[in-house]
Design a protein that fits this description.
This protein starts with 10 loop residues before the first helix and ends with a helix. The protein has a domain of about 35 residues. It is mainly alpha-helical and about 70 residues long. Helices cover about 60% and strands about 0% of the residues.
């Protein structure tokens, strides 16, 4: 899969994107910030909704890739 949005993220956003568990082993729900969605949508020339769905697709791909590597 070609990652379009992941290279545009800063390091803290990359860590948050691939995080699956929060404190005390609870599931982590990733919700991107509005400024991040705006930045990705302007750089890729897509809507905010498309940027959100692109991030979620890439998140699912990266998590599955990380799980299969272990």
């Amino acid at each position: 899969m070609l990652l379009k949005a992941y290279p545009l993220l800063f390091s803290a956003s990359k860590r948050a994107l691939t995080r699956t568990k929060g404190s005390f082993g609870r599931p982590y729900n990733y919700i991107p910030r509005g400024a991040l969605l705006e930045r990705i949508s302007t750089k890729l020339a897509i809507s905010k909704e498309a940027a959100y769905s692109l991030l979620m697709e890439e998140r699912e791909y990266l998590i599955n890739l990380e799980k299969s590597g272990k």
